[in-house]
Amino acid sequence: MSVLRRIVQSPTVSNAAKAFIPYPLGREPSSVPKIFPIYETYIDRRPISLRYRVTAMIEMCNLDEAATISHLAVVDRFRNDRDTVFICNSVIGAMCKAKRYEEALSLFNYFFNESQVLPNTLSCNLIMKAHCDQGRVDVALELYRHMVLDGRVSPGIETYKILTEALVAAKRFDEACALERSMKRRSFMVYDILIRGFLDAGRFVEASQIFEDLKEPNSRLPWREYHKAIAVFSASFMRYWLKQGKDEEAMEIYKGLDKPMLQVNPIVGNRILQVLVEHGKKTVALDLFEEMICNSETVDIIFKGFSDTIVPFDFEWLGVGCYGTMIKRLCEQGRVSEAEELFADMFSDVERDEHLMAAGPDVSTFRAMINGYVKVGRVDDAMNMLDKMKISTLRKLAIHRAS
């Protein structure tokens, strides 16, 4: 058993007895932009939680103000609040999404090193992903090793997915496989990253060996995920054969799949649907789509793959996320009138009932409509939609009550 695996499975040091060791940043802390604390008087006295204030600023894409307000999460009044880590993660995540990695790292250092708030797995995952996105895999691995040795925060499945994907992208397959072997809890998604990585690198034998090993009766896969995992792995091999121009081999795999699972399990169904659409198997893809339970990813795949075709949707079974995705894609395709009708139909009850505000349009949906109007030259309608967005956001803020 490797040293790393022994550490993961049998930590011997009590969490409570450990002295605080700062989380590694990949550089000297003095080189990270300094954050200065703010006073509670920075915000007004309305009974609105700090969590909601930060979330509202993020929704309105005012990340600078969100970051400033979030500094209060470490002061005594808010520090013991159950929302503290949520606030920290929200603003760090928003900075990462906007690719403002330097500021994300600075916030991470301020919250979890300087202020010694205890992070959770998501906190570390966000920074590891930021490092990997910038090609700094070794720095991400340094933070992972710190988590393992420190023991207060445990790596999760998403941690291993992030690191495995980065190692595979860097063609560091031996390290990726070693990392997989150190996992306490197995995840078929990590195995699929390895399989796809080997296939993309032309190493079919290694990919097939992993697949065959996982199909054995004593498979390392959790039994509840076994059939779902085999279907996801099959999608990766379908993609491989289609890329090689060997359609017959790919479709033979498809014929052998459990069709009811594809229909009711979006993770599996969407993976197969994506492969079919990407490689021109649109008739088969539409047949599958008509039988599937849709989520927002399903809608996204269909709109991107059938941009020149009107695809019928069963609106009775679509959730709010699906509607939002459809509106965005319709606007991108210049089909603003259709998006407009869908927007009006989807949110027709919201203005009459404040309890439905949470199900109403989010800022990204409003922005999609605004951009769509501008794209087709309807500037006045874009300005009206901007006013509606402001009113909707203010109404959400007004009806909010502090927890």
UniProtKB/TrEMBL annotation:
Keywords: Repeat
TM ranges: none
Gene3D superfamilies according to UniProt: Tetratricopeptide repeat domain (1.25.40.10)
PPR repeats: 84-119, 120-154, 187-221, 319-349, 362-396
Identification of the protein by name: Pentacotripeptide-repeat region of PRORP domain-containing protein
Organism listed in the record: Microthlaspi erraticum
Phylogenetic lineage: Eukaryota, Viridiplantae, Streptophyta, Embryophyta, Tracheophyta
Database matches in InterPro entries: PPR_domain-containing, PPR_rpt, TPR-like_helical_dom_sf
Top-level taxon of the source organism: Eukaryota
